[in-house]
Design brief:
The chain is of the alpha+beta class. It has one domain. It has a 3-stranded antiparallel sheet.
Length: 96
Amino acid sequence: MSPPRVSLDLDRGVFVILDEHGRVAYEPDLARFDRCSEILDWFAQVAGKAWVDDETLGQFVRLVCDRLAVQSTLCSWGRDAGRIDPGAVARRTATQ
């Protein structure tokens, strides 16, 4: 397994996605991850990048789901729970 190419920079409020050479290639703004439809759109956006391999996409999906507690904060039981403050949720999950 290769080193992680996806991280969350809470100080800057961005997800950081590196390309295959370890350079920053994409920095989605954390504030935009405030509802289910936005998160799904970001998954599709990242998946559509030619330089994103399956492992990097998987790392991104897992990080977003873990740090934003997607099932418990946004779409539990298949129901959209409305908007969240993604920065606040990410800070809270960082301490758990």
